[in-house]
Amino acid sequence: MVSLTTPLCDFGWSAPDFVLPGVDGKSHSLSSCRGPNGLLVMFICNHCPYVKAVLPRLVRDCRELAGLGIGCVAIMSNDPADYPEDSPENMQRIAAAMDFPFPYLLDESQAVAKAYGAVCTPDFFGFDAGLGLQYRGRLDASGKNPAPDDARRELFEAMRQVAETGHGPAEQTPSIGCSIKWRAPC
C-alpha cells in the first residue's frame, strides 16, 4: 500500500463537471450535488485504512455541512477488479450501513479522478458557491487510526468558512491516504 499526500490548494481552480452512477441507482452530476454555498467532492473507497479511520467523522461533518448550504459527494475511483472490497455491491453496503448523507458514486473509467487530479483516498476538494477550489486539505489529524475525540475539525471549519465568506483558509494541511488504484493500461 502506497501512502501519498495531496498537493497544495490551487485557489480558484474550477471544478470539472461529471455525471456518474450512484449506489442509489441514480445518475448524479456536479450541478445536482452542489449546495447554494459550495460543494465538497471526496474521493474515498471502502478498503483504505485512512478512509475507515475517518468515515464516522466524515458522515457527521457532511450532515452538518448540509445545514450550512454545502453539498457533499463521495466518488470511488479505484479498480474493483484488483480491490473487490471496492466493488459497487460493497459500496452500496457501506453507504447503507453508514447511512451516507451524500451520494456515493462510481468512477469506473477513472476519468473523473484524473480530471480532478485525485491522488489518494481520502482526497478532499472543497469548492465555493461558484465552484472555485478553496480547500484541498485533510479531514483532521487522523491517519490510519482515528484522531482523538477533541481533534480540530479542519475540513469542517474550512468549509464553514467557505460557506460564510466564500474563501478557504490560507493554511491547509494536506490529506494523506492510500494511492488511487489505477487500472493497468491496455
TrEMBL record:
Top-level taxon: Bacteria
Signal sequence range: none
A family per Pfam: AhpC-TSA
Domain Thioredoxin: 9-161
Database matches in InterPro entries: AhpC/TSA, PRX-like1, Thioredoxin-like_sf, Thioredoxin_domain
Name this protein carries in UniProt: Thioredoxin family protein
Species the sequence originates in: Zoogloea oryzae
Upper classification of the organism: Bacteria, Pseudomonadati, Pseudomonadota, Betaproteobacteria, Rhodocyclales
